[in-house]
Amino acid sequence: MAGRMAQASSSPGHDPTRKKRTLAVVAGASVISIVLITAVLAQILYGVFSGPPPNPGPQKISATFGTPSPITNGFQVTVTNVSRALGPGNFKVNLTVNSTAGTPAALAANVVLTVNGSAYTITWVDAGGEGTVNASDRFEVTRPGGLPVPAVLTFSLLWSDASVVQTAVYTTTTVAKPVITFGSPIAVTDGFELPVAGASRALGPGNYKVNLEANSSTGTPVPLAASMSLVVGGQTYSITWTDFGGKGLLNAGDRFRVTLTGGLLASTMYRFYLLWSDDSFIQWLAYNT
Predict the structure, then answer these.
(1) Which of 10, 26, 35, 221 fits a disulfide with 209 by CB distance 3.0 to 4.6 angstroms?
(2) pLDDT by residue (tens digit) across 93-121?
């Protein structure tokens, strides 16, 4: 009897150590299951609350330009082809003058970039009015008074990350001074007017400056423009250029008018100077009051 009880107590079915091991394995498996379920739920909840992955945006396009051509105070370049029409928010623009580059700026109808201390305006002409960069659009690069001479200007159409999409290079070269002649001055209200009688070559205003002398006082030359102001001897004179042909070129038939509010000073000899862009002399005309 005692022997049978000893055998029964030592049988595998009643081994307490084995039962503890079994419980430990079951508990471990439960913990692993809970961890896995928690991780899966976390991923599901993250997807629900964080939304879909961000849109990477459109892929970078390719574009081609035509040959740059001169315009008043600058140059223009036409877009001949784009791989896909996209809005301006996908692009930036920049300008390099000789070896100095500006800071890339977001594309807009008009963008002002400062390079070498000069302000250049980049105008995007949306030819079709679609609001996208497309073939037949053009970019105009201008500077008040004209582009520097000589210079190499590189216009860059950039992607939104400032990488290059396409560039256009325009070179300005030194040109010989034209021969300009004036006709006789004409008295007008508060001033005088002088006609341009002849010009050996029609050139844009960026090639010229003007100045004024009153007796022994002389102003500081200013770039030729439709309207200018000059301070001479403490007086502020207004000078206007009438472009008779309307082509943005100084030519025969054009007129200059010099006026002073309240009228010109009495007993004064005025000299109007037409200068080259480097301040060298081209032509002058005298008018006495």
Answers:
(1) 221
(2) 999 999 999 999 999 999 999 998 899 99
